[in-house]
Amino acid sequence: MANVFIFTICSVLLMSRAESCYIPDSLYVPVPQFIPVGYQITKVETADCDIKTLRLTVEDPSFTIHSNGAIVTLTPVTLATRGRTFSVRAQDNNGPGSEMEVHLVRQTVKETDHSGQVLLKRVKRRWSPPPIHVLENDKGPFPRKIEKVVSSAAATHKLYYTISGSGVDEAPLGVFSIDRDTGELNAHKPVDREEYATLKLRFRAYDVQTKQEADKYLDLQVIIDDMNDNAPEFQGELKFTVPERSSIGMMVGTVNATDRDQINTSHVRIRFTLMDASKLFAIDPLTGVITTAVNTLDREVQDTHMVLVKIQDLEGAPNGLFSTATATITLSDINDNPPTFTKTSYEASIQENESGKLILRIPVEDKDLINTPNWISKFVITKGNEDGNFRIDSDPKTNEGLLYVVKPLDYEKNKKVRLEISAQNEAKLVGTTAQWLSVPVDVNVINVDEGPQFSAPTIRINVKENTPNGTIIGTYTAKDPETNSADGIMYYKIEDPAFWINVDRNTGELRVANTIDRESHFVQDGIYNITVKAVDKSSKVGLGTVILVIEDVNDNVPKIPSNLVLCEDKDGKVGSVIVVAEDKDDSPFSSPFTFSFPPDHDGKWSVRPFNATAAVLQPAKELPRGIYEVPLIVRDLQGVGATQMTTVMICQCRDGVCIAKRSSVTFGPQAALAMLLPLLLLLLLCLLLIFFCITRREKLELEDMGYSGGHLLPSNTEAPGDEVDSNLIGMGLEQALKGSVKGSALNAGWLGNQSSSTIGGHGIHDIGNYQGAISTTKMQEYSSGQYEHQYGQHVGSQLLGNGMGFDYRHVAQDSSYLHTWQTNGVYLQRKLDHMRTEGDGRYADDIIHSYGYEGTGSVAGSVGCCSDHGDNDNLDFLNTLGPKFKCLADVCRKT
């Protein structure tokens, strides 16, 4: 079968190599499409290699290479259409070695019959050449012949060839061309593999005469072979941090690099190198990991190191391309420097008895990083503060130590205190053999003239209750701390709630002043406190406390309840009752108690112990319901006791309470007071009514001069009428009535327009009854009420309406006037007696009423019953009511 293509490799460019151990750059091996395990692909031939130290490696895990150079499959391999490529490396101890690329190409298919004989299979003529390899960045000369393509149809036809695809009419343009007649493929310019790793071309063969394709088109792949034309590049920032004082080999960071050349070739195998001559750091040449080379890195000496890093491909071969960059390595702080004091010792002063005061600031220095736990100071008082007089803090701003006195110092006890203060950090010391430092601090105590001090701030004295008054129970004295003498010191009692103790002013003796009672509420748990002060000659004061421990005595007998209830059950049987006794004394003067009856007991009751403080009392025989007085003798543990009477009520009970007692009413003091209170209120009300009636009667007797019914009376209009001659004022009353006044009163038509009116509860007609000219018959008619409205009232109204006054002194100068006065007095007395019998109902109509039209032009207006209702005593408001009311006020006012 004719070959589909005849490939002729025109030239092979070989680069000079410096390696001592050499293998070819590439190798093309035809293999079947399916390669079984253990299949030997090929055998690599080496040159100038040391056999003893030769190392052959293959990067594809599907293959292995033996020491004799044989490449064998480790796993089944299926070959793709494009084939498969992997690298083989040979290296000995004499140099860096060399690398070869193995290209696996699918071989011609052969078939076998059942007997295993190989049969030639005739296939249709097809173009199936392997890929064409072109070296990138070829420098020419151009055009350069790359390959020659010949179709099998050329044997029978005269052909011409065309080409299209990448490098021709697609980017990159103008790279390839083909000779139309011979089919030679030429290159016209170099190609950069980093931009175009492969190019795809399509070849076509046409018949010259028919212009038709003589064969099916052929797709050919052009592989741009890599050359080492790109230097490696750094990736990421070269900034690293490592703690100072790190041990040798501590990882600092990793330098990352990349290379644009073809992967899995020596062109991208980078070697890392540090160009720094200080030798403080090291770098792994293959991984780029930077580590510390010494353990003496000190941040306080130099906190940042600049290291020059070199990366070179071809595994660092001299002809490899390289790049350099500076890596910044920062040393992080550790607490390897303790705080140091600026002085070797410190001194401070404080007055005795002062506290809560800052007496010293202690500065320190620290080389560690500021404002970190490695720098922040923490001070500790290691010696001299056994009594807790001092406290030391840290100033967060200045990092100084602040020494305070928190408990007063005593000059007489210690004139100077020596402290030892240690300066530390919040963090522990690491990476150093240094220790925390300390400094001595002398605190001088300044003497102050103090008040007297008692022998002890608090003393305890035991005293029995009921100790006789005047008994000395102890002495509480003080001394001047300056002179250690008690001369001239006076003693006073400050606090003694129950006034039980007196303090001798000169000696400090404590005497019983009043009976001490342990059972008093002033005593708590047997303790009673008094406060004493001592005053020296300079009036300085010292205070002390005396704790009296009150010892109990048997001064209380057990007490039992005075009333007990004993219930009957439904069958009339009487049960028992528990009698509980109480004793204010404590053991052994209290329980257990004993209960018994006096010798002259009537035998109706029995008692038996119940517990230490109670006994069961029950009838010794049947007893009817009722109240019984039962004597009981109750004694404490010491036999102290007395006979006590308790009242026992036997009754039917409900919920423990006698039914009869619950239904009965028992009056106590409060109930009696509650019943008397309404009686007292009623008495006060009666007195108030009497006072009101007396006051009312006095007003009636003095002011009510006529009809006093108090009812609304019809009244004529107050419209203008006959004028009253002013000469009538000096005339006698009878003459006035017989003259124009009477005529006006009876004939002026006053019974026309009417309105209802009363004045202060009296009838206005009362004044008309004082006229002596009225006959006895008329007086009787008037007394019977016949002329009450028609005559007397109108006359009075006319008189008052004209502002006329009436002089009562005329009555005493004329016997007829006196007779009339006496007659009117009898009438008024009857009216008053009648009003007393009517009660409060008589005033039912004395309320505000509506009035009819009274006309216009009246200066004073109408007067009603309520005119004098507001204030019975203050009549000053009448001064503003006009001349008619002034006259009326003069008549009504008491004389």
Summary?
The chain has 895 residues and is mainly beta. It contains 9 helices and 55 strands. The longest helix has 35 residues, at 669-703.
Structure description:
This protein has seven domains: 26-225, Cadherins (Immunoglobulin-like, Sandwich); 233-332, Cadherins (Immunoglobulin-like); 340-446, Immunoglobulin-like (Sandwich), CATH 2.60.40; 453-551, Cadherins (Immunoglobulin-like, Sandwich); 563-663, Immunoglobulin-like (Sandwich); 669-703; 704-892, no CATH class. The strands form 18 sheets. Strands 46, 48, 51, 52 and 53 form a five-stranded mixed beta sheet that branches. The chain has a four-stranded mixed beta sheet with strand order 1-9-8-4, with no helix packed on it. A four-stranded mixed beta sheet has the order 12-18-17-14, with no helix packed on it. The model is unreliable at 1-19, 109-127, 661-666, 697-711, 721-813 and 864-871 (pLDDT under 50). By secondary structure, the chain is mainly beta. It is elongated. Helix 4 (740-747) crosses helix 6 (788-801).
